[in-house]
Design a protein that fits this description.
Strand content of chain B: over 45%
CATH topology of the largest domain in chain B: Maltoporin, Chain A
Number of helices of chain B: 7
Oligomer: heterodimer
Largest interface: A-B, 104 and 109 residues
CATH architecture of the largest domain in chain B: Beta Barrel
Helix content of chain A: 40-55%
Structural class of chain B: mainly beta
Number of strands of chain A: 6
Number of domains of chain A: 2
Number of helices of chain A: 22
Radius of gyration of chain B: 32 Å
Order of helices and strands of chain A: HHHHEHHHEEHHHEHEHHEHHHHHHHHH
Strand order of the largest sheet of chain A: 1-5
Number of strands of chain B: 43
Largest sheet of chain A: 2 strands, antiparallel
């Protein structure tokens, strides 16, 4: 019976250590591994990062960079995209970007909500941070609807209310974009203490305000064809540009890149080796004897030969839409090695090109030229910065680094203001009227090519020009004439599989070749 | 509670039941050799390249004929080019990789069977010794075993040691006590599988390239790879040497108990038992991509868990012979399970320098910890009644309280009842032909808890998509971000409930010479808990909720026969037929389907209207009539995403038979699976890369027509579209474009997977040498006799749990094994 006694004691002891009260079980089930809430600065910290890596510089930039012939597709998905195979009308193509895009927008809303004056959180009334989140919301929502057209919006961002959000028209979404942007501009008059958690500007709301003004100019330009009084809009755009960045140091350039954090274009090519030089782009540089061409292209022998000013370059570009699927066969540019080059959410050169276009379209050639000259100078400096980043890329250095064939590493290259001015004087200055406008658009197209994630905006320009019947920037892919120029991005498969509203609109995906977005003259 | 997924009852040998006396010792040893069971047909005619031109660095094998390489304008030894500037090399061609390796770069064109060369024979040794002994007041047994195996790839293998100990002792008149415990230690070396797996670099290797013979790295730099293609995928030989995936696990499980048993009068017996058990393990993983992986500086992940689960079980029962015909047993039980797990993961991004693939050499490192607790309380009762060994009734009920559920839904209750009737026990029915006959029926409910967590924030991560590594990580410059989790949980989650109905009949003829069993069961699962994939536009990724109702119909039918049972010749056999069909009955509002696995597209899922699981993805473009429509060049086109294949088999049949002639015992087990299909990524990707025999066959044809029945569009003068049978011929020169087009259509990847296999066949013979008995045996396992899927083992796939074997892409090939063993008994 002693054994029984001890056993009973053991049972009681076990029972005593493990309670089954609801309170005890709540404690057992408590999530020890994550915070259930955080302050707004921690949420905001990822917004510029994810935007730069996943939206501005991510898959959109590579795919549409191939569509508009900033690059040719040498291999894999980019080869398929260049060949206009199923890539464009497959819902898996943009799914990663689609999902991340909505997550960023949701996070922006979370910050705005926490910073509301009456939120009751410690962030309540932080108007400066709220303004930053509003600008990022507008920035991302605009790219979303620019690329996908009609998108889930009014029922989006909250699964607990709508698991299958309905789709809203681009026109109505653009109104929301402008509303958030205006709110942001108003709120950015206040300061914030977010500091280092703002990886774009270190919490400087003055610079954010200049970014917001430039962004407003970009977005007004997108929808100008739908405006009742375009002339007034161009005038507004021009004055917004004046209120925006005063030089390159103020541009919205995200740069948290180093030995382990990669510029997204570098990450793409380092992982995939799928893109190479575009023939039509190379031709545009060659036609203009562009000083950039001799610095940014490698010859066909490999990836370690930068030859400044060498007229005998053995460059092997990809014939647009007509290449072979082959790696290490076609030539590369320096941008794909620019491991630490910035991702430009909005660049100074873009703002100056916007102004140049707006002035040129109003017939103010002198003002247009002045802006174009600033834009070209900035674009050259920007390219030089990417080139410097490629030459100093930590991962490439581990393999011997890039070098100039003449051994003159670092002194030969200098895309400085003097070279830019000489080029401007030769190529842009003599022009006027429509010729000037056309060259401004080409120069913008050339300037937006690079390591900085600016191809999507160049794609928007091309669609806008197509809608206006303008053929300033010619593309050579023969598939375009056969009705296979992608007019938009196809919805992501997470919605085509889980949201019938989107599945129906997606269909077989063939609509990406036939349906323009609203601001480019389409209906959806 | 756990019975919802079926129950495995483990009975541990404790020496109970042995004859009292001296210890019984047995020793067995086995050796088995495994080899790849089947390989896909690999073309050895064409060389690496694209568009018919040789290219020594592309991933494609659409180059010239291997026999024509010497005439290649850029690399041929017979032509004038950069490499022949210092003299021609008749009949040879220039291989840049040989030059990089410091060898004679001029090679005579020939075909290598890179797939066959890569795999080797795996060997598995296992030994086991067991000692058992019984005494007047107790018994014990222990065993020790070890297994050591090497895989069909170099530097892969497994080592396992296990020890088991069990004993019982009688303590006086009413008490018995005992314990049993097992300890297992395993050490496994693996390689990557799936899309990132190293077999990708093997199956897609051009036959023109000597993958095995050309060194995989520079002569003076083992960390710079030489490969036939770019380093999106490592050279597989380099990977075997430089990448390593090691998993070490140690696990102890066991329990100790005290049992009190007392008879009251002659008819009643009361039993009470308390048992305390533990299941504890540690698991440590070390995944290393060495310096030079993908041409970069490598990475390392260390992760693992320490887990403890305590199980307290108390039962008390009354056994009562009410009359000589009526017998009752009533049992009450209480079970408490308390678990705790600590998990860790550490990630090192890049190594500072080559030669030391270690966390302490990481350029940047990150560490994470996770802790999980769980607790379950169960109370249960069971009442069993039987009458005249003829009629059996069982009624049970159980209540569980589970910590992982939302507080208002933690408690749930589920009952069961079953009835069996052996009608051959009725006097008028008794006869010599049908000697045993039983009908049975049961109804049961089983509840199962899910996992609920409050909404939380976590550090966002980067990677996936086109990235081959981790392109960005927090903290950056002292700043860390937290964003709302993309996995969300329903705060009103309720336990899932399975209602099962089962009916069956068991018949035995001539005292078991012929037996026949049939069971039909239906299980209705209500409030099925799963992670519902959310539309990205919700801003969240998946939602853990009660999302639907499913049901399963299962027919199981067995015939056994023993046609001969003589002294020197015995023969018996059994055939087992099963048909298990699963259907989704309803899905919660907003839920479109149940995601079981796969990629973003294609995926394996369950949806309303289809026997699941199914493969869902991009289909061929079809017209309203359901015919595949080709384009003007005769190529198939991309259609909508829909169900493109059914994974579930129509039925499965198992057959086993044993002959015993004198003392020679021959046994064989056959498996036949009929119906079902899988997404076979390897086969279709080999067509695309141009390494499959099919790709070469299509190139060799002057012209061909799209391989499936299809129609083409015919437009009349007024623009009306009608359809006519597809007769558009595609030139063999466009075979690459043809397979490249097909590679965008997941429906092309779906292959039938019916098979017949010899699962095992063995022969054994016992010898008696003095007091030692020895049994020698030889066996063969997993021999494919016939398969609808040519060149692949239909069972070698990824994610066999949820996806039911419906998905394959560069998986390790299946293996057949052969071996023999000896068992000694003293």
């Amino acid at each position: 019976m002693k054994a029984l006694k001890y056993t009973s004691l053991a049972i009681v002891a076990v029972m005593a250590t493990v309670s089954c009260s609801q309170k005890a079980l709540d404690e057992v089930n408590k999530d020890l591994n994550h915070p259930q809430d955080v302050t707004a600065n921690f949420i905001f910290a990822d917004i510029p990062t994810s935007t730069a890596i996943n939206i501005t510089g991510g898959d959109y930039n590579t795919y549409f960079g191939v569509a508009i012939e900033h690059w040719g597709g040498a291999h894999g998905q980019m080869f398929s995209a260049d060949q206009r195979r199923a890539e464009w009308n497959s819902s898996s193509t943009f799914n990663n970007a689609w999902v991340t895009h909505y997550a960023i927008l949701k996070n922006c809303l979370k910050v705005i909500e926490k910073c509301a004056d009456d939120s009751g959180t410690v962030d309540a009334g932080d108007a400066g941070l709220r303004g930053m989140a509003e600008v990022m919301f507008a920035y991302n929502l605009a790219i979303l609807t620019d690329l996908y057209g009609d998108v889930p919006y009014s029922e989006a961002f909250d699964y607990s209310k709508h698991m299958t959000p309905k789709v809203d028209s681009q026109e109505s979404v653009y109104k929301e974009v402008m509303k958030y942007l205006e709110n942001g501009i108003a709120d950015l008059g206040s300061k914030t203490s977010v500091g280092a958690y703002d990886l774009l500007y270190g919490g400087d709301t003055g610079k954010w305000l200049k970014f917001a003004k430039g962004l407003k100019a970009r977005l007004l330009l997108h929808t100008v064809l739908k405006a009742s009084d375009p002339a007034a809009v161009y005038a507004e755009i021009s004055s917004l540009c004046d209120e925006s960045f005063s030089d390159r140091s103020e541009e919205a350039a995200f740069n948290a890149y180093n030995a382990t954090n990669y510029n997204p274009l570098f990450d793409f090519q380092w992982s995939r080796d799928d893109i190479g030089i575009s023939q039509s782009l190379y031709d545009k540089f060659a036609d203009r004897s562009d000083p950039r061409a001799s610095l940014i292209y490698f010859d066909g022998g490999g990836w370690c030969h930068l030859v400044p000013g060498d007229a005998e370059l053995d460059i092997n570009p990809i014939p647009n839409g007509q290449g072979y699927e082959a790696q290490y066969y076609y030539s590369y540019d320096c941008f794909v090695f620019a491991q630490t080059a910035s991702t430009n959410l909005l660049s100074y050169h873009e703002v100056q090109f916007i102004k140049a276009e707006a002035e040129a379209r109003q017939g103010n050639d002198a003002a247009a030229k002045a802006a174009a000259q600033l834009a070209i100078e900035a674009a050259f400096e920007n390219t030089q910065a990417s080139l410097d980043a490629a030459l100093a890329a930590p991962d490439i250095m581990a393999y011997g680094g890039l070098y100039y064939e003449d051994g003159d590493n670092g002194e030969g290259a200098s895309l400085d203001a003097a070279i830019a001015d000489a080029y401007y004087t030769a190529v842009v200055d003599p022009l006027s009227g429509d010729d000037l406008l056309a060259e401004i658009m080409v120069q913008k197209y050339l300037a937006m090519y690079g390591a900085n994630g600016e191809s999507v905006e160049a794609y928007n320009d091309i669609r806008r020009m197509k809608a206006a019947g303008e053929d300033f920037v010619t593309l050579d892919n023969p598939a375009n004439a056969a009705g296979k120029f992608p007019l938009r991005a196809g919805y992501g498969s997470s919605d085509t599989t889980a949201n019938p509203n989107v599945k129906e609109l997606f269909g077989t995906g063939a609509y990406v070749y036939t349906e323009n977005v609203w601001w480019a003259g389409g209906t959806r | 509670m756990r019975a919802s997924n079926g129950v495995i009852v483990i009975t541990t040998k404790s020496g109970n039941g042995l004859q009292k006396g001296k210890p019984q010792i047995s020793f067995s040893t086995n050796v088995a050799m495994s080899t790849v069971s089947t390989l896909p047909a690999y073309q050895t005619e064409y060389a690496q390249g694209s568009g018919g031109a040789f290219s020594p660095s592309t991933s494609l094998v659409w180059g010239p004929r291997i026999s024509e390489l010497a005439d290649d304008p850029k690399y041929g030894g017979n032509t004038d080019n950069t490499y022949t500037a210092s003299g021609k090399q008749a009949g040879k061609y220039y291989v840049p990789q040989l030059a990089r390796a410091g060898l004679d770069p001029w090679a005579t064109p020939q075909a290598y069977n890179n797939i066959k060369d890569f795999f080797k024979t795996g060997v598995e040794w296992s030994n086991n010794v067991q000692v058992a002994q019984a005494f007047d007041k107790g018994s014990y047994s222990f065993s020790l075993g070890n297994t050591k195996s090497t895989g069909i790839m170099s530097n892969t293998g497994m080592e396992r040691y296990n020890a088991r100990l069990a004993a019982t002792a009688k303590l006086g008149k009413y008490f018995t006590t005992g314990f049993n415990g097992s300890f297992i230690a395993t050490d496994i070396d693996k390689q990557t599988g799936g899309n990132d797996g190293l077999v990708n670099g093997v199956y897609a290797a051009p036959a023109s390239y000597n993958l095995k013979g050309i060194p995989s790295s520079l002569p003076d730099d083992p960390y710079t790879q030489i490969h036939f293609r770019n380093l999106t995928f490592d050279n597989p030989y380099w990977a075997l040497e430089n990448n390593n995936f090691n998993e070490k696990t140690q696990r102890f499980y066991g329990n100790a108990y005290l049992n009190f048993s007392i008879p009251i009068g002659g008819k009643v017996k009361i039993d009470a038992k308390y048992q305390l058990g533990v299941d504890a393990y540690t698991n440590n993983n070390r995944d290393v991509f060495g310096y030079g992986h993908r041409g970069a500086s490598g990475e390392i992940s260390l992760y693992g868990a320490t887990s403890n689960e305590l199980n307290s079980l108390f039962t008390a029962s009354v056994d009562w012979n009410i009359t000589s015909d009526l017998h009752l047993n009533f049992l009450y039980g209480n079970e408490i399970v308390n678990s705790h797990a600590n998990e860790y993961s550490e990630y090192g991004n890049g190594f500072n320098f080559a030669g030391w693939n270690h966390m302490n050499n990481a350029v940047a490192s990150y560490a994470y910890e996770y802790q999980y607790n769980g607790r379950t309380f169960g109370n249960f009762v069971n009442l069993a009644l039987d009458w005249k060994d003829m009629l059996f009734l069982n009624v049970s009920g159980r209540q569980d309280i589970v910590s992982s559920m939302p507080s208002q839904n933690r408690t749930f209750y589920y009952p069961s009842v079953s009835l069996g009737f052996i009608f051959t026990e009725i006097e008028p029915v008794k006869n010599d032909v049908l000697t045993f006959g039983k009908v049975r029926a049961s109804y049961s409910q089983v509840g199962m808890a899910g996992t609920y967590r409050a909404d939380y924030y976590s550090v966002p991560t980067y990677g996936g998509g086109f990235s081959s590594g981790t392109p960005f990580a927090y903290p950056y410059s002292g700043v860390t971000a937290y964003t709302p989790s993309d996995v969300v949980y329903n705060p009103n989650l309720v336990p899932q409930n399975t209602v099962g109905y089962e009916a069956g009949i068991d018949l035995g003829f001539w005292n078991g010479i012929l037996t026949f069993n049939y069971t039909f069961s239906r299980q209705n699962v209500k409030n099925q808990i799963f992670a519902v994939p959310l539309a990205g536009s919700t801003g969240s990724d998946s939602f853990m909720t009660n999302a639907g109702s499913i049901h399963t119909n299962a027919h199981e039918f067995t015939i056994g026969a023993q046609p001969f049972n003589g002294r020197n010749f015995k023969w018996d056999m059994a055939l087992n037929f099963t048909k298990v069909d699963n259907y989704v009955d309803a899905l919660a509002d907003g839920v479109e389907s149940i995601y079981l696995g796969g990629f973003v597209e294609p995926q394996v899922r369950a949806g309303i209207g289809d026997k699941f699981p199914v493969i869902y993805g991009v289909s061929y473009l079809r017209n309203d009539n359901g015919d595949i429509v080709v384009d003007e060049d005769g190529f198939p086109q991309v259609g909508e995403e829909k169900v493109i294949g059914s994974v579930a088999p129509d039925f499965q049949v198992g057959f086993n038979t044993t002959f015993e002639i004198y003392k020679v015992k021959i046994a064989a087990t056959f498996d036949w699976k009929q119906g079902g299909s899988m997404y076979c990524g390897t086969a279709a990707m080999m067509d695309y890369y141009g390494t499959s025999q099919k790709s070469a066959d299509y190139r060799n044809m002057d012209e061909f027509i799209f391989e499936l029945p299809a129609v083409k569009e015919v437009v009349d003068g007024e623009g009306n579209v009608t359809y006519a049978p597809n007769d558009i011929k595609i030139s063999g020169d466009y075979a690459y474009d043809y397979f490249a087009t097909l590679s965008d259509i997941s429906e092309y990847f779906v292959r039938k997977t019916s098979y017949v296999k010899l699962r095992e066949c063995s022969i054994s013979y016992p010898f008696q040498i003095g007091k030692v008995s020895l049994t020698a045996s030889a066996f063969a396992r997993n021999i494919i006799l016939w398969s609808a899927l040519k060149g692949f083992d239909p069972e070698a796939s990824q994610g066999n749990n949820n996806m039911a074997g419906g998905f394959e892409r560069f998986s390790l090939p299946g293996a057949s094994s052969y071996g023999f063993g000896v068992t000694l008994k003293f």
